[in-house]
Predict the structure.
Amino acid sequence: MLEQLKKEVYEANMQLPQLGLVTFTWGNVSGIDREQGLFVIKPSGVEYDKLTPADMVVVDLAGKVVEGKLNPSSDTPTHTYLYNHFPKIGGIVHTHSPWAVAFAAAKMDIPALNTTHADTFYTDVPAADALNKEEIAADYECNTGKTIVRTFKERNLDYLATPAALVSQHGPFCWGSTPDKAVYNAKVLEVVAEEDYHTLQLTRKNCELPQYLLDKHYYRKHGANAYYGQTSAKSFSHN
Amino acid sequence: MLEQLKKEVYEANMQLPQLGLVTFTWGNVSGIDREQGLFVIKPSGVEYDKLTPADMVVVDLAGKVVEGKLNPSSDTPTHTYLYNHFPKIGGIVHTHSPWAVAFAAAKMDIPALNTTHADTFYTDVPAADALNKEEIAADYECNTGKTIVRTFKERNLDYLATPAALVSQHGPFCWGSTPDKAVYNAKVLEVVAEEDYHTLQLTRKNCELPQYLLDKHYYRKHGANAYYGQTSAKSFSHN
Amino acid sequence: MLEQLKKEVYEANMQLPQLGLVTFTWGNVSGIDREQGLFVIKPSGVEYDKLTPADMVVVDLAGKVVEGKLNPSSDTPTHTYLYNHFPKIGGIVHTHSPWAVAFAAAKMDIPALNTTHADTFYTDVPAADALNKEEIAADYECNTGKTIVRTFKERNLDYLATPAALVSQHGPFCWGSTPDKAVYNAKVLEVVAEEDYHTLQLTRKNCELPQYLLDKHYYRKHGANAYYGQTSAKSFSHN
Amino acid sequence: MLEQLKKEVYEANMQLPQLGLVTFTWGNVSGIDREQGLFVIKPSGVEYDKLTPADMVVVDLAGKVVEGKLNPSSDTPTHTYLYNHFPKIGGIVHTHSPWAVAFAAAKMDIPALNTTHADTFYTDVPAADALNKEEIAADYECNTGKTIVRTFKERNLDYLATPAALVSQHGPFCWGSTPDKAVYNAKVLEVVAEEDYHTLQLTRKNCELPQYLLDKHYYRKHGANAYYGQTSAKSFSHN
């Protein structure tokens, strides 16, 4: 069942330790088959060097396990909520990567301060509101998805152009057209969080990127007029 | 004698360099057999790549060497004191991991600022008082254990729920139900110390976690109602 | 065509991930054959582990592709402009190395604060002005070269003695007598950016190097009276 | 000639990149045969992966090359001066390790803030005065040794108990009873520089170690009453 997608999701998960994005088992990637309405996700708490493609768990868009011997990631309800409310994404990744976590704990957006950021994220990456007592007491993981979606609505953000969010006090969630691209975005987020931290210690004055530079770098790589890389246009996907 | 425990303690010691927690020989792990009242500890000042399971030293709860050709770790009296006063722990680790040391030198607790912390530590990790002149002059290593235990009593902390302490001006001691889990906790402590340092440079306002989020994340992984990982409940051990 | 130069440029590109200067494909090196007026550059967006010497693209000094199946780096117009206006350089490298980017985003020069800097860079490494809206809207990459060259003119800097610049909000460009030496300079820049960042957090008072120390260290390694290394003088090249 | 010492010095040099203390060729180790009054030092500017024991250069205490096809390190006059004025040391290492350089550029001592420091360095590690214009213009490298020795005299420091110094605006010099122990001290210095940096960003108040803790940790490892490691006393050497 969904053997190809399981393999893709497995490989995307295995990139996390290679890219320095996880300690122990603290990260999970999923990928969705939109036609069948099923997604594949890492099992909970399994060490990366023991993971196999066959360990991946298949879940439907109501959050029910459809196939798999292991428990799915405890963050499965967050993935489910995001797939239901961000209908064009194909993969999701959650990590506790340390620079993104440092901003999340400070409840600060990761601001757009350089072109590395603008190449992947069209705006500041928002720090979604921390959950309140009631949101934590019941349906915690589902509410984690809700605070992200609510933040994108409130700020009028395009989830394809800004494929990441921090959950305040917690950490980053990233997504993309595929599991592999979601992981790519998670690595970019970590890199720009580190760069931004250092820039903000050097100066906090007038360092936000102007809109025209965000436009230039973002659309140099994304959309119909992209000219970075080996294909003349990348109209299918924002990332 | 205690061959299985020696192997476990050896392997836990060997994780320290792999996890980036030690420079040279600056760390030691021990593990206890509670039935026999004996613990096994790394010998003093031996390089990790020359260590073997047979080099481990067996010590009783009065701190006397029972078996072993090498001197035990110079921190053996600290381990002895902790095993005697924290009766439910099965393993102890001491390192000079650099982020934890940075907080210890500042005599600052490692505050609970994010869910990575709450997943393992139910409260701030306390910086135990630095030893005074008299405590250093005689029985230094034993007094190092005493300041930790005293701090837990004074602050009314549960040593199973907060399985780590800093000794001010010195460094971290961590523990767990097994030597392996003690090392796991030592790595988590180092990761959250690094994250907290950066968060505190971004902001020092209103960044302490609320109690309800500490409750949620800690009990998601620990205790009778835990639901993280592949076992439905983890009632035996807090970590 | 230019097989030897392609090999040199390929090898210089492959040094970038080895030296920790690039994430993913975010960097490019070129090298020029001044007699033929042609330069060789990395193709755009190709992963380093898939790159071969034959993938290198040959470009003339008008910026036109002369040979190659792949698109050249999207930064090719910047390289072209620099080769035309810095006539004695033989290689150029652009990266998004994170410490240099942190300074670029802060629009701050990388100041000469220690002898590591002075061994390679005779002055502060300038942060060239960020491009304005018009400069970004048309001929962006060419204008990136222009702001660098304009900065060197305005500040009366010798591009051989200071073989690097930051482009504000973007990142570093470095150069040298060969592609290999350009990469060497890019690594030095990243190292001194990291050192300077930490020095500036310790103190911002009176830490600029005096001119006589810049003279000493720079000319110990460069020019007719150099005495570092195994050749008695290095009169041919500044680096 | 001095084949065993050449091998020791070679191996000590090769430890520098393994311990993360050097970039490119920016470091050198020497070792002395006190009976013959000759020391062995790394050649200038040779890459570590091309170095062999036979490349080591033999120099006398007047600074003259006695044997060797290659130029000795450009820092040879500094080593010569230190061997002449610190008569009990057996090895010297100079690096541009980045955390120590950050303090040197700030002209700040590396303060004794934790026991990791006190285990190896009995006092703050001093930042020797930067050289003035005249000291740089002539006999620069010899004057680099002089500022170190002068600083130890002025502050009444024991060079065996504090086996390291920073040269302001430049970087660290470390020494020990052997080349290997000098390298060990250089690594400790880099580790405590990193830890101290972070501690000083957390707090600058009341964080200096008290003398009784310096005494305890230093003499736990050094001198007649040392009890760390596998030998009951280490009276021969302070390190």
Observations:
- Chains A and D do not touch (no CB pair under 8 Å).
- The helical segments of chain A are 3-18, 76-85, 98-105, 115-118, 133-137, 140-154, 179-202, 211-221.
- Residues 3-221 of chain A form a domain with the L-fuculose-1-phosphate Aldolase fold (CATH 3.40.225.10).
- Residues 232-239 of chain A have pLDDT under 50 and may be disordered.
